[in-house]
């Protein structure tokens, strides 16, 4: 995620670990996940993107972080400078518009354009144009990169191009951060829309291909897990329910299995033990209480390295 790095395993395990044991980086990533889920639910209800929705995303994103100030969830009220030492405008790589009524109106105009006017344009081109404009306006004090990239997927979902919000463009862009910034800068400096849109389209295409590979690998792994269950004479019941959940949540505890399925702790413990015997689960914590188990092959797929 832009500017924030946390081990994938720690993020995936966060649902079943204690809050106190989570690092600041993990909490920031979890904030992003919650902000994204709320945003996708918003458009899933058929509501267009609005300033209210945008500000709610920002508030969720920065909650409990150093950026959680009085401006959290609000269009910025101060001037910012991008790529400068100490925030000085004189040395800035880019200076976004000043705060005030014109910035507020420009954000509303952008969202209106995404919701209505852009529908007559190729959706990839429209998403590239909207992303450039959002990053140029830089409407918040912090988190503009994360929200801007999330808006790409929200835009494509809103227009029905994506049926599920599985696409992630941040990894591809983050790996090419310098070129990404240069391409955006060239639009502002020289009007090079062709260069920016071509770069953006390439990133979108490669991100889609990676997403398809990941989903295919996860589905294949699910089939393999079912095969292992059948070979062991375990064809249904709680063990099969846990298998289906592991594809989306590869970290579990006995208590989380019990709570998610409504079964007793003993039944959950028995199911987990069987999956450990089949080498589908591996204990991660090595402690006697609150043990956390990992479906290692699932996390390998999510890291882009199928372990089969």
Could you please describe the fold and organization of this structure?
The chain has helices at residues 8-13, 24-44, 51-62, 101-115, 123-137, 144-158, 170-174, 177-190, 193-231, 237-246, 254-261, 265-277, 296-302; strands spanning 251-252, 282-283, 293-294. The protein is mainly α. The chain has a 3-stranded antiparallel sheet. The two termini are 27 Å apart. The mean pLDDT is 89.
What's the SSE blueprint?
Layout: H1 8-13, H2 24-44, H3 51-62, H4 101-115, H5 123-137, H6 144-158, H7 170-174, H8 177-190, H9 193-231, H10 237-246, E1 251-252, H11 254-261, H12 265-277, E2 282-283, E3 293-294, H13 296-302
Antiparallel strand pairs: 1-3, 2-3
Helix pairs in contact: 2-3, 2-6, 4-5, 5-6, 5-9, 8-9, 9-10, 9-13, 11-12
Q: Quick gist of this model?
A:
Helix 4 (101-115) packs antiparallel against helix 5 (123-137) and helix 5 runs antiparallel to helix 6 (144-158). The chain has 13 helices and 3 strands.
Strand content: under 5%
Element order: H for helix, E for strand: HHHHHHHHHHEHHEEH
**Order of strands in the sheet with the most strands?**
1-3-2
Low-confidence stretches: none
Q: Number of DSSP helices?
A: 13
**Helix residue percentage:** 55-70%
The tally of strands reads 3
Major sheet attributes = 3 strands, antiparallel
C-alpha-based Rg, rounded: 22 Å
